[in-house]
């Protein structure tokens, strides 16, 4: 099987800082991969490079066998890479429905077909448990529901690769359980790359975990092996074994 995504020597400098430093990475189709690491390790910068939100200083990104390194973000979206931002990106004055309608319209060759838009929007809202809040202004949803709305917006793009950046931040424990179920559902049709600080969520969801530290991959393994890894414990959990 071919990887869905690979990076080779991927680097990004901010002034003198190498935020992402020569990262070789591969993601297999259908996988749920968690990316963890201390604050400032380069996780968000890495996924921003993959989504095309920022450009690399050097290195290469290959998606589904094609070099996408130079492609703008909107083309990558069309090719199936969806990225939900760390910072809430919903339009507060638009309803939940209209927020999701925006990405649905982008996936339709005739974005004005009302029936098709409605079907796509309601499918995404139902999967995220937001269907009964479709007509609420997004700004009036709880913070946790706004995060789920972002996931719905990502899902509406029917991505092959869904990148979630700290999706459980601000979710209540009961909502986290639903979220775990949702990600497993999503992974039946898509590959998931998940930046997540909540370790129980990571341990339950991830097939494999990639640990970033100081812009580099420190370790990559199964959840069980990562839990036992001394270097990871030192760098990430701040405790010597
Ligand atoms: N636009 C930018 N300009 C300058 N420095 C930046 C920029 N974006 C990120 N950095 C720096 O790059 C490093 C990596 O940041 P990044 O946000 O990728 O880390 P992270 O692992 O996602 O951290 P966190 O877990 O806190 O979100 C940090 O030192 C950060 O300050």
From TrEMBL:
Source organism superkingdom: Bacteria
GO molecular function: ATP binding; ATP hydrolysis activity
Domain ABC transporter: 5-239
GO cellular component terms, A-Z: plasma membrane
A Pfam family: ABC_tran
Keyword annotations: ATP-binding, Nucleotide-binding, Transport
Stated name of the protein: Amino acid/amide ABC transporter ATP-binding protein 1 (HAAT family)
